[in-house]
Amino acid sequence: MRQVTIDIKKVKELISKKALKSLRTIIQDQHPVDLAEVLEELSHHESIELFKVIDFDVALEVLAELGSEKKFFILTNVNPRYAVQLLNEMSADDLADFLGELPEEKKNIVLSLLETREQSDVRGLLSYDENTAGGLMTTEYIAFSVDLKSEEALNRLSELAPDAETVYYVYAVDSMHRLVGVVSLRDLILAPAQTPIGEFMSTEVKKVKASMDQEDVAKLMKKYGFLALPVVDDNDVLLGIVTVDDVMDVMEEETTEDMLKLAGSDEKLDTQASSPWMRAKRRLPWIMVAVMGEIISGSVINNFSYTIKALVALSFFIPVLMDMGGNVGTQSAAIVVRGLATGEINPASLGKNVLREAVVGIILGAINGTLIALIAYIWQGEIVLGIAVGIAMAFNLTLAAILGTLMPFLWHRMGHDPAVAAGPFVTTALDIIGLFIYFTAATWILKA
Amino acid sequence: MRQVTIDIKKVKELISKKALKSLRTIIQDQHPVDLAEVLEELSHHESIELFKVIDFDVALEVLAELGSEKKFFILTNVNPRYAVQLLNEMSADDLADFLGELPEEKKNIVLSLLETREQSDVRGLLSYDENTAGGLMTTEYIAFSVDLKSEEALNRLSELAPDAETVYYVYAVDSMHRLVGVVSLRDLILAPAQTPIGEFMSTEVKKVKASMDQEDVAKLMKKYGFLALPVVDDNDVLLGIVTVDDVMDVMEEETTEDMLKLAGSDEKLDTQASSPWMRAKRRLPWIMVAVMGEIISGSVINNFSYTIKALVALSFFIPVLMDMGGNVGTQSAAIVVRGLATGEINPASLGKNVLREAVVGIILGAINGTLIALIAYIWQGEIVLGIAVGIAMAFNLTLAAILGTLMPFLWHRMGHDPAVAAGPFVTTALDIIGLFIYFTAATWILKA
């Protein structure tokens, strides 16, 4: 792999010296993605100077890769005519995403710079929920009439290609712009010159409604290995396409969300942007819920104060009981959350999955229960302690596997994100129940 | 979206009635991915009957989607000549993946059915580690000499296209088969007919070595939005290409691994395949480590038996202390693990990240420490208890944020998977330290 060879220090130095020629040489032939990375590292003032020496075509691609803050700064600080030119050449979905992230006032500044046609495209895209197929799609697709001959289609393609997001699929539409078929560029090249598209197109087109959730769109594209997927309205009229690169971003986003929720946090990965205070605030609600839950755990122990006074060693095993339950519960929950996300677990198979995890829980519970009972007995020389700890551990791990599986499943069924129901909630519930079983067993045995 | 309309019950019924004509009608025009799903649901005997009525071209694609067990059964139970035909038309990378999953004996049966040329391709692919670019790549790419004219290239493309994995990039090689450039199908269509590829190709080709880790390959392709990436040896000789669909699978695999490791488990998502015993065994080592850790937590409490006897209410706050530390630590760890995986966190910025998380930890610690101190005081009417719990909580959450960030970072730096260092290890370490601070503070204050 070619290494990224842009030396940021050197770039900063050249900018301060206004050595534009050397600057141009350094950035020549660099990938737009790498240039965007450099721009993000530079100060606002420096980035404008660098941006000015980038060629128009490359600048367009660089712009598409920039964060919205930097993008807005650059567009409002280069020559206004150049900004207008850039904006009107940007792809409609990138523009819509960009505008969606700007506050109202800035949004209007940018919109005012757009040509009428671009403006209506972008406003159209902005009207969809950003988490749906409509919010994800671009309007820069290629669609031809079913009657168009393959040779002519290839010719038109050459003209249209520079503006289209992907030329790898060409859609066939009827006179009402309803989607009726699809041909790949491959089919088009292979087809005899005079054959109309309608004769060799595939009529089995997978397509999605504009309102479909972006996660479902991503799953569908992954399952069938599509590079692009057409988006239609209720009458099958073609509205746009979703491309594989956007879908990869969605997959990443959704997975990050799942992972952080599973860890009990509404945090985002915008580690650079937000203040520690903001970050703490996002995590606080989850922690407060857990505090309340664990106060209940504490009051369970409170109810057994006499038992603890009689046998202080009982308190030595609170940590291992709590931690084990939490571990097993989180393991089970992670499997369900991830399995539902990748489609490897069928949402309809609740009973089967819970049953299977319950068996795993019983095995883990039996092994660890025996182990911990032995440790307790050997360590403290109290048979009572061994039995109570062993029983509580065995019960708790079985329950942990069941609850850990059941909760995200049920939450998913009620139409919520399963990751939320996992993690902290399951752990806290298990702590309360586990401690209750433990002390009840101990009190019982001590009395007997 | 077109619904999957294959009624499995109906299919089973038609198979048992041997109503092949009706069977053929039902599966006609169905997507290979959907047909593969149906085959996986059927019994071995039924699936052979259904497979026989699928057309050759579709059957090939269906085969590519099947799990290795079903695939092996079908290939060894259809007409041997048909099996040979199918095998020799399968793409080399799919074949290599399939063979990699088979036990030695079965592998040899399949290899013996392959033609010599296919065999050497597949053996070549099998020689790479399956987690590297070499293990991921396919040899069915298209490469032309730099001297070939664009028109001729397009013509040859039409002949080669059906066998190639992707025709969206065409690679340009010199006389030694060294990679020197790339043209997209789009460039080829747009170029004047008589221009040699060398004149309009891009010479800035992103490429990877065969030994590169698959996760790095996936990151690179995602970053630059490539649909395919060429793989070369140390002399830049083109060996194969990695395509976007394989990379999407890698992303999913790696993320699943991260998520389950973060939850403290070596589990896999093969929920259908493995027995509960196997599943329990995979989780057991992690749990055992945690048991040992929590026994240390228990012995910390043991050292403070006298303090607990003096003030039993101290034990009521063990759950909240332990749970909070674990929560905050896991949150911080999840952010680092995910940030490193997506590239949003720079592995070099250890100090900066730890510092920022420490501030978040201090904020969370101060708020929750104060809250829990108040609760303790109001609930138990003991000022000592309030102060001890508050101090321990504040310390513990700060430490949790620091350790949760630091551990996966360090682990990553030592060349290991950061997800392993997160989760259970951090939680257990925090429990031990947290309880120690708590009881030390309480003993101190009680003495004073």
UniProtKB/TrEMBL annotation, chains A, B:
<dbReference type="InterPro" id="IPR006669">
    <property type="entry name" value="MgtE_transporter"/>
</dbReference>
<dbReference type="GO" id="GO:0005886">
    <property type="term" value="C:plasma membrane"/>
</dbReference>
<dbReference type="InterPro" id="IPR006668">
    <property type="entry name" value="Mg_transptr_MgtE_intracell_dom"/>
</dbReference>
<comment type="subunit">
    <text>Homodimer.</text>
</comment>
<feature type="transmembrane region" description="Helical">
    <location>
        <begin position="385"/>
        <end position="411"/>
    </location>
</feature>
<keyword id="KW-0129">CBS domain</keyword>
<feature type="domain" description="CBS">
    <location>
        <begin position="137"/>
        <end position="199"/>
    </location>
</feature>
<feature type="domain" description="CBS">
    <location>
        <begin position="201"/>
        <end position="257"/>
    </location>
</feature>
<dbReference type="InterPro" id="IPR046342">
    <property type="entry name" value="CBS_dom_sf"/>
</dbReference>
<protein>
    <recommendedName>
        <fullName>Magnesium transporter MgtE</fullName>
    </recommendedName>
</protein>
<keyword id="KW-0472">Membrane</keyword>
<dbReference type="Pfam" id="PF00571">
    <property type="entry name" value="CBS"/>
</dbReference>
<dbReference type="InterPro" id="IPR036739">
    <property type="entry name" value="SLC41_membr_dom_sf"/>
</dbReference>
<feature type="transmembrane region" description="Helical">
    <location>
        <begin position="358"/>
        <end position="379"/>
    </location>
</feature>
<feature type="transmembrane region" description="Helical">
    <location>
        <begin position="423"/>
        <end position="446"/>
    </location>
</feature>
<comment type="similarity">
    <text>Belongs to the SLC41A transporter family.</text>
</comment>
<dbReference type="Pfam" id="PF03448">
    <property type="entry name" value="MgtE_N"/>
</dbReference>
<dbReference type="GO" id="GO:0046872">
    <property type="term" value="F:metal ion binding"/>
</dbReference>
<comment type="function">
    <text>Acts as a magnesium transporter.</text>
</comment>
<dbReference type="InterPro" id="IPR000644">
    <property type="entry name" value="CBS_dom"/>
</dbReference>
<dbReference type="InterPro" id="IPR038076">
    <property type="entry name" value="MgtE_N_sf"/>
</dbReference>
<dbReference type="Pfam" id="PF01769">
    <property type="entry name" value="MgtE"/>
</dbReference>
<keyword id="KW-1133">Transmembrane helix</keyword>
<feature type="transmembrane region" description="Helical">
    <location>
        <begin position="284"/>
        <end position="304"/>
    </location>
</feature>
<keyword id="KW-0812">Transmembrane</keyword>
<keyword id="KW-0479">Metal-binding</keyword>
<keyword id="KW-0813">Transport</keyword>
<dbReference type="GO" id="GO:0015095">
    <property type="term" value="F:magnesium ion transmembrane transporter activity"/>
</dbReference>
<keyword id="KW-0460">Magnesium</keyword>
<keyword id="KW-1003">Cell membrane</keyword>
<dbReference type="InterPro" id="IPR006667">
    <property type="entry name" value="SLC41_membr_dom"/>
</dbReference>
